[in-house]
Amino acid sequence: GAVVSQHPSRVICKSGTSVKIECRSLDFQATTMFWYRQFPKQSLMLMATSNEGSKATYEQGVEKDKFLINHASLTLSTLTVTSAHPEDSSFYICSARDWGGQSSYEQYFGPGTRLTVT
Amino acid sequence: DAKTTQPTSMDCAEGRAANLPCNHSTISGNEYVYWYRQIHSQGPQYIIHGLKNNETNEMASLIITEDRKSSTLILPHATLRDTAVYYCIVRPNSGGSNYKLTFGKGTLLTVNP
After folding, report:
1. Using the beta-carbon criterion (under 8 Å), do A32 and B45 form an inter-chain contact?
2. For a tag on chain B, would you pick the N or C end, based on fewer CB atoms within 10 A?
């Protein structure tokens, strides 16, 4: 099946710094990628939808200036958490939709990135 | 607004079938039922989806009632590695390029030895 990778798998940063998380579709082209956040013992919450070559669409309550999303190619989307604070500590997960695959209805999820802000 | 209702948790003995129910009484005619699971500290994994017919793949079977108001995911021979949170999601398969998935709380399935 289609594979989505994320890098890094875990990161620890100091409060006030910025962190970039990469999401790659390894064996398919993804015109649409999604970014989720998951706090401990809670479900996944969609943060934004990223379309290749255009601006991301953010869900209500998600600060677009704080969570910068770039989807410059069909295989790569990045999420940058700017001026991170401890409350941004969470599990960030991306997913990608296989535009041209036979099973074009599923989203394929990355393994997630554990962000800890100290 | 939750579109699906699932039990919070379930237990199953290893080797036995695990039957996970999901209620989606407000499902629309163009909405599919999707099942994903999430093993602890990993990204969700697609399991199966269906519209109105029962579906089966190498992982599981999906039984959808005739009125489509509920469904059951069946893992025929549960193993310890099937311990995970299982999410039932309804979503249209058309209507734009976003195809957003809205995750509820899911069911924590614990497979016991």
Report:
1. no
2. N
